[in-house]
Amino acid sequence: MEKRSRSFYVLAGFFCLFLLFLYGPTLTIGLLSFQGPKGGLTFPMQGMSLNWFRELFEQQAVGDIWGSFRRSLTLGFMVMMTTVVVSVMAGLAFRKRFTGSGVLFYFAITSLVIPSILISLGVGLIFNQLGLKVHWATSGFGSQLTWTLPFGLLIMFAVFNRFDKSYEEAARDQGASSWQVIRHVILPIIAPSLIGVALFGFTLSYDEFARTLLTSGSYNTLPLEIFGMTTNVTTPVIYALGTFTTLFSLIIIGLFLVIAWAMKKRRTLSGSDAGKAL
Amino acid sequence: MRTPRNIIAYLQAAPLMAVLLTFLIAPILMIIVVSFWGATEFSIYPAFQFDNYAFLFGSPVTYKVFFATFKYALITWVFTLSIGFTVAYFLAFHVRTQVMQTALFLLCTIPFLTSNIIRMISWIPFLGRNGIANQTLISWGVIDEPLEWLLYSDFSVILAFVHLYTLFMVVPIFNTMMRIDRSLIEAAYDNGASGLQTLWHVIVPLTKPGIMIGTIFVVTLVMGDFITVRFMSGSQKANVGRLISNDISLLQYPSAAATAVVLLCTVLLVIGILLRFVNIRKEL
Prior knowledge:
The structure holds 2 protein chains of 2 kinds.
Chain A: H1 6-32, H2 51-58, H3 65-93, H4 101-113, H5 116-129, H6 136-161, H7 165-173, H8 178-207, H9 222-232, H10 237-270
Helix pairs in contact in A: 1-10, 2-10, 3-6, 3-8, 3-9, 4-6, 5-6, 6-8, 7-8, 8-10
Chain B: H1 2-34, E1 38-39, E2 44-45, H2 51-58, H3 60-94, H4 98-109, H5 116-121, H6 124-127, H7 132-139, H8 154-165, H9 167-178, H10 182-190, H11 195-224, H12 227-232, H13 240-249, H14 253-275, H15 280-283
Antiparallel strand pairs in B: 1-2
Helix pairs in contact in B: 1-14, 3-8, 3-9, 3-11, 9-11, 10-11, 11-14, 13-14
């Protein structure tokens, strides 16, 4: 192996600083959430304790944290499932040019670049004028999809750009119907990427703020609850909540990565599934 | 044979179309309609008047706020691009094994999947009056008094933007760099190009599509933002998003809608220009 150049070490140093910049603040509030009972929002630490976590789990004076956590979790799963199914279907459709595919593509791009507050405002106004009540599971759900679906679609584009069509053609030559081709050839091949789409769907929904602001109704999702807390909570309990929900996100991400890794592993181990389609 | 295939494609695309028509196109149309409506202190009524636009374009605040929005977008773009490019370059050309590359790339992407609000809150212990930054600088003797402009200023707003959105540059640039044919770089070296010459004349031009996609993300996210500016400036600074959200909190929906229409046109115009330089679907 050739020797590392000096620019490698400079760039590696820069990269480490970048990681410090990315993770430093989060690790700091992680540490500060173990602040002693008398401690404040910044250093020095007044001893170590689980006081703020205890407060988070005990008192409900600051708001309905657990209710909002449950709602965010449910909504996240709803958005995740819908994103996977709708993106895969649209991804399949976009493999061929069809009338209106250009328009639909530009709609998706608009959905990605439109300022979130416009979705919030527009959906809120429509529900309002139709006399409907905004609710996180209806208007909130739809608004979040305008953010997760374009991401899902872009991932599907990336997947199908790299997809070797000869597998499909081979299956068709052997007499497979279009549905059999999708079910037994395309879906198994793209399955690990679907884990990625699912991960995006869930986490983007779980953390979404602006698009749910005016569309979630009287029951807050977790990010809305946290934002409410920033204006009236001045103790490290907010760090404890931050640490808790970040850890939760990390566990979810880890889980998805393990699943994707296991799927790849299984595929290389078991190899062919010839004949299973019969 | 043509027609049934087309029908299948329509059926596959239908759910996406339905969601976007209901929750994207209809809301945009609604905002456009409402931007011509009138408002009293506590309700809005249908009308067809240009008052909201007249007021918007007649107010000096509008121009100031639009200027601030562009300023945030431009400064954030410069920082995210230079940091994002450097990081992506390191990952793509200096990390040798694929396992290491994937691991480091994941390390860069994970924060994107955690809460933006928490990531903003996490700057408070750093930048506050008695925060880590001030304490460190004082203990080093660099300053005597705590710096007041670290938190609740343009500085903290842009810092948060860069912190939140650099990933949107790293990912597409890294993606394009990985598709560059390595033999082109070899060829440049063989012909006597220096490292910098190769970087500037070979790698940068080939990375342009990724840079464009990253730029689209960063510019639209910053221009459409209202929460980062509100939170990191302690409500002391304004951008267009905050103008809209203030009108909303005062129930002045028609006025908010008019501002939203102008903002949307501005963003789409910028994106339209950027899209002329790149074909997104081919670059993924």
